[in-house]
Automatic annotation (TrEMBL):
Transmembrane segments: 298-321
Keywords, sorted A to Z: ATP-binding, Catecholamine metabolism, Membrane, Methyltransferase, Nucleotide-binding, S-adenosyl-L-methionine, Transferase, Transmembrane, Transmembrane helix
GO MF assignments: ATP binding; metal ion binding; O-methyltransferase activity
Gene3D superfamilies reported for this sequence: 3.40.50.20, ATP-grasp fold, B domain, Vaccinia Virus protein VP39
Pfam families: Methyltransf_3
Species: Lophiotrema nucula
E.C. designation(s): 2.1.1.6
Identification of the protein by name: catechol O-methyltransferase
Recorded family membership: Belongs to the class I-like SAM-binding methyltransferase superfamily. Cation-dependent O-methyltransferase family.
Annotated GO biological process: catecholamine metabolic process; methylation
Position of the signal peptide: none
Superkingdom as given in the UniProt entry: Eukaryota
Keyword Manganese in annotation: no
Residue ranges annotated for the ATP-grasp domain, each copy included: 467-671
Length: 776
């Protein structure tokens, strides 16, 4: 940061709140219109700003953005070239004249200055007129939230390309959420927020830096009545406008949690010379080094290396503890003659491992495990005490699935498997359906499988077929269309436009585009809400999706409510165990909903209806994603996706003997109890230590060290991590079977990162529980 030029310093700011609204703003007007240089001010933004600065230096302090911070935003304007720019908080018009002029030079069409105090607004309007900017600047008097809503409702404000936030600090976040909900701030919008470090605006920084998952969680907490505005903002700032506004009002908008911001802090000077900081979005070029391919993989390998002693300590302590407790197999005292051979596939993932552990703890059976293993000997499941043997399967491959199918079938024959519990990942979904059919033929009538056949998998797994099927059994679905051409997408918008007047009440209907096949890259952008600000932008965006016959998309009505996911074990068309929990895109924290809650009951009813429709041969794991609209008993649930396979939410059953019994009865050809097993309440919440260590500790630490984050954010992260360590349970670690935990973090993941480095495979996210790497 360059040195501050002392000759430009404003008069010092007075104590308390006497530094504004004491008549100085009107005094400024007199100063300007009595200026000896008045004729040179007319039509010259530069000279008007210089005269305002002169007043601030020689007369009284003014709370303007000032020259130094102003330059940062002016540069941003030149880069972003906003057509429409909005500022929240105009005061006497300094930022409005500086940025209005910059926006005009960059080809901008409209600059809205939103100011609550009518006297200040009159000063802004007068000085804007003096500077000759009245054709681009529009001063809007009133509280920012009401003004935003009105401008949007009138159709004047359809999209904000750049927004400068410089008004009432606690309203930064609530106004931003309002803009998101109205979709006037959307993908590509840029925000510049003043004073986020001094005096400080932790809620705003937290919000713009949160993941989708964190924002959804927060929104839910707020929906449960915990919304507090201005937490962490100094009282002096919070109470700044009390003289005129006794009680501040806030927009209660939920925002759009799916919008992700890149944020960066920029330090600069207040016009008094204090160091201030603004936050503005980053562009790809300024992404710090630790998010780049090579450093990020190297850092994660290093983290794994450094934490070996801690993990080794826990493993050792677990073995010592287990020494004093009998091993699970010898403790269960089951009758060996009733032993069946159960094969669980997918045991490198938490879901498969959880099921083998439940079975080992609570049943007499011989449990064998299998999984694909791209890097030899790296599978965490291979080292688990819950399986009597581990087998490596060929990797399913869309072009030639035979090796995978053969390896699975020959294993089943060799081990004389009585029951196969499939927990395989999505890449083998259809193949597993085929294996059931073949295995039933080859292993005889006593063979059973917890896996749907391929026709069922196809019907449920493919997004558009699933929606059609659910519609056919008269259950509600969100409005959805399969699109194989860009024109089909645009057609839906055209029809929508015709209906637009009917939708005015809740704003224009929003859509998301989901790739029907598995496409990690497209999935990452899936939450872009359409249509965008203009028909042209929407058309351009649709083009980037490369929609075609080979790459079909599902266009689905966007429902803004919270998301839930479920896991169910269905045997012979009956639901045997069920759990529902709040969900998000990359779900790494699991909390069960109480089974008696109206939400959980409705999701169970839905699952039972699908299971019943499947008939007596319908056996497998079934999980749905739902979006909820409304609350309480009147909540309406929309299924958006089905995964006809196990969900990691099964981890919530880790204690459940009843669930083990359900599998066991099935293995013996009996139907078992009628009750539906749910996790014991209150159930533990689950997290993955490695994921939390990186997201709550490593990233905030690096962000702080490299000037992007604050100590406060790091301490919030540390507190969250500590809370999970102490009160939650790790999804992989159990005392009697600690090795998979060690292998996951010190063999499996480092091997993956090294592999990515060697092969130049870039990734955007990883899922610790499913061991999946998402391509960048
Ligand atoms: C720091 S000053 C803005 C300075 C101005 N951006 C500049 O740099 O020249 C903050 C202004 O926000 C206004 N304000 C505070 N809360 C507001 C709200 N809810 N809506 C609109 N304006 C608000 C205040 O009246 C005050 O004039």
């Amino acid at each position: 940061m360059a040195e501050f030029d002392q000759s430009k310093a404003y008069a010092p700011q007075e104590e308390g709140t006497s530094f504004f609204d004491d008549g100085r703003e009107i005094e400024l007007l007199h100063f300007m219109y009595e200026h000896p240089n008045l004729e040179n001010l007319r039509g010259s933004p530069k000279n008007v700003l210089a005269a305002i600065d002169e007043y601030g230096r020689t007369k009284k302090y003014l709370m303007n953005v000032g020259e130094d911070k102003g330059r940062i935003v002016s540069d941003l304007i030149a880069e972003v070239k906003p057509k429409t720019m909005v500022e929240l908080g105009g005061y006497v018009g300094y930022s409005c004249i500086l940025f209005g002029d910059a926006a005009r030079k960059a080809g901008g069409q409209r600059y809205y200055s939103l100011e609550r105090n009518p006297e200040f607004a009159a000063v802004i309007a007068s000085l804007v007129e003096l500077a000759g900017l009245s054709n681009i600047v529009k001063v809007v008097v009133g509280s920012s939230d009401a003004s935003i809503a009105r401008l949007h409702a009138n159709g004047d404000l359809k999209r904000i390309d750049l927004m400068f936030l410089d008004h009432y600090k606690p309203a930064y976040t609530t106004d931003l959420k309002l803009c998101e909900e109205l979709a006037i701030v959307s993908v590509g919008s840029v925000l510049a927020a003043d004073n986020v470090i001094k005096p400080g605006n932790p809620p705003y920084l937290e919000y713009v830096r949160s993941s989708v998952e964190e924002k959804r969680k927060r929104a839910q907490e707020e929906a449960n009545g915990k919304a507090v505005h201005g937490e962490g903002i100094p009282d002096k700032t919070v109470n700044q406008y009390q003289k005129r506004v006794m009680e501040e009002k806030f927009s209660n908008s939920k925002g759009d949690p799916n919008l992700i911001y890149e944020s960066r802090l920029v330090n600069s000077f207040e016009p008094t010379d204090h160091v201030a900081a603004m936050s503005s979005p980053t562009h790809q070029s300024s992404i710090p080094f630790f998010y780049r391919h090579v450093p990020k993989n190297v850092l994660l390998v290093l983290l794994s290396f450094i934490t070996v002693p801690v993990s080794a300590f826990f493993v050792l302590a677990s073995y010592i503890l287990s020494y004093f407790r009998p091993s699970p197999k010898s403790s269960n005292g089951h009758n060996a003659s009733r032993r069946k051979t159960i094969l669980v596939t997918g045991i490198s993932m938490t879901k498969g491992l959880t099921i083998t552990r439940i079975l080992t703890l609570h049943t007499p059976h011989c449990i064998i495990g299998a999984d694909i293993e791209a890097i030899p000997f790296s599978s965490p499941g291979r080292y688990s005490r819950s399986v009597s043997s581990f087998h490596t399967l060929e990797t399913p491959n869309g072009d030639n699935s035979e090796p995978y199918i053969d390896s699975l079938l020959s294993l089943m024959k060799k081990e004389k498997v009585d029951l196969w519990i499939s927990c395989s990942s999505v890449i083998g979904a259809l193949e597993d359906g085929e294996v059931v059919r073949l295995a039933e033929r080859e292993l005889g009538s006593d063979f059973r499988a917890v896996q749907f056949r391929e026709d069922v998998v196809e019907r449920l797994h493919e997004k558009d077929k699933f929606i059609n099927y659910i519609r056919s059994i008269a259950l509600p679905v969100p409005d959805s269309h399969r699109c194989e051409t860009n024109a089909q997408v645009l057609d839906v918008f055209l029809k929508e436009d015709a209906m637009r007047e009917y939708n005015v009440k809740d704003g224009r209907k929003k859509w998301i585009m989901k790739p029907i096949g598995v496409d990690d890259r497209a999935r990452a952008n899936m939450m872009t809400l359409l249509p965008l600000g203009s028909a042209d932008e929407t058309r351009k965006y649709i083009k980037t999706l490369n929609i075609g016959k080979e790459n079909p998309y599902q266009m689905q009505h966007y429902i803004s409510g919270p998301e839930y996911c479920t896991h169910a074990l269905v045997l012979n068309g009956k639901v045997k165990s069920f759990v529902a929990c709040p969900s998000s895109e990359l779900l790494m924290h699991y909390k069960a909903l109480p089974p008696t809650s109206s939400l959980a009951r409705k999701m169970l009813d839905f699952t039972e209806r699908v299971a019943e429709d499947g008939g007596a041969s319908f056996s497998g794991h079934l999980s749905f994603d739902f979006l909820a609209e409304g609350e309480g008993e009147s909540v309406r649930l929309y299924p958006i996706e089905c995964n006809p396979r196990a969900h990691t939410a099964v981890v919530l059953f880790r204690e459940s003997k009843a669930m083990a019994d359900a599998y066991s009865y099935f293995a013996s050809g009996r139907s078992g109890k009628k009750d539906i097993t749910t996790p014991m309440m209150p159930s533990w919440n689950y997290y993955w230590a490695g994921h939390d260590l990186v997201t709550f500790v490593l990233i905030p630490l690096l962000e702080m060290l490299f000037g992007r984050g604050s100590l406060e954010e790091l301490s919030i992260g540390l507190a969250e991590f500590w809370q999970h360590l102490v009160y939650w349970r790790d999804g992989t670690f159990v005392v009697w079977d600690p090795l998979p935990f060690f292998v996951l973090y010190h063999i499996y993941w480092p091997a993956q990162f090294v592999d990515c480095l060697l092969k130049g495979k870039e990734w955007s996210r990883i899922n610790v529980s499913t061991t999946k790497v998402f391509q960048a």
